[in-house]
Amino acid sequence: MSWKKTTWTGWGRVLSATGELARPERSAALAALATEGPAIGNARSYGDAALVSEGRAVIMARLDKILDFDAAEAVIHVEAGATISDLARILAPRGFLPAVMPGTGFATVGGCIAMDVHGKNHHGAGSFGQHVTEITLATGKVLTPQDPLFAATVGGLGQTGPIGSARLRLLRAKVDVMMVTERRAENLESFLDLLDESEATYTVGWIDATATGESLGRGILEEGETGAGLVPSAKRGRRVPFNAPGWALAAPVVRLFNKLYYSRVPAAGRTLVKPIDDFFFPLDRIHDWNRLYGSQGFHQFQCVVPVTARGTLRSMLEAIASSGLASPLAVLKRMGAGRAGHLSFPMEGYTLAVDFRNRTGTRGLIQELIAETKAAGGRIYFAKDSVARAEDIPGMYPELSDWAAAVNAADPEHRYETDLTRRLSLRSTK
């Protein structure tokens, strides 16, 4: 297997790495690379979770085969490089879906395990790892939820070694389309009340991060249910051919866009029929959408705070709105308690995610938001982070020491470390 020296970035395009990459074509080749370095899927983590500076990493994208599908048991066995969108496309006509799907279909099964991702149904279905029944590492070791190393692997940032394949429990659903109800929320309190009261299977909210005063936290709540019927035509994906100029996300432009976007939903609400991709993976229709933030890239801040921390969310949104740094992309969701690993992000509460163009003041603002998150008893999401410091993490993740002990025992030579685990000193925690 040949290694190629390459420079690559996280999805936010702020942080980069130069190292050696290998791209195995078959599982037999992966086994030979099992101890060379960590695995990378499609590098859709925003910061440096998929970066290995001056090291080696294994790209899993071509190891994407379905190895077995048991319709009676609703279980599928797939290689770790398979993407969530491919699984959804293949399974939906057969009456199944992945039980949990993140906001991009380009995420791989291995990546979803490594981050223990959540979806729009987390309040009911829990996290991705809770539907994984078996993990086979590239070394050949097989993990089940009863194995102590399972909880260090799920949500474990790839630190127990490359994943070769996994068995997933599927959701049984007749899915041709999504029935989506959109409702406006006039401010943060009404938005959070709608999230708390919703009985929908899937919920997600767009929030106007530029709104102030009585409109602070206004937004649009989408509630979705799977359905069968006439499938509307999906819009073909478009590609962003160049980096957007700085003025494209200037504060006045973002405020105008957000005002228009909020107004597109009637005050009385409405119900729409959407293709499943349009509901689950709305940004995937725009290839390379990260270029919209310009050549300097962007940061995303994502946190989850307890349900008792509504005041913290208000304080955060006030800081974001007054900064003039917000983009149109801001998401608010309700999370349940479901999580499967020591470093799994989910906890009972509200999760807020906001994109910020990489410019003067952005890192300082995010540092303030991280401090507020920690003070409220919440945590940040490693899949999105590019700003946090090592001292920010203890306390956010009470099982950090248990995780570090497990992965250091499994990988005593630290072959699977990434730029993120080094930046945050995750494996040196006592």
UniProtKB/TrEMBL annotation:
InterPro entries: FAD-bd_PCMH, FAD-bd_PCMH-like_sf, FAD-bd_PCMH_sub2, FAD_lactone_oxidase-like, Oxid_FAD_bind_N. Keywords: FAD, Flavoprotein. Residues 14-173 form the FAD-binding PCMH-type domain. Gene3D superfamilies: 3.30.465.10. The keyword Flavoprotein applies. The keyword Flavoprotein applies. GO terms for molecular function: FAD binding; oxidoreductase activity, acting on the CH-OH group of donors, oxygen as acceptor. This is Decaprenylphospho-beta-D-ribofuranose 2-oxidase. It comes from Vannielia litorea.
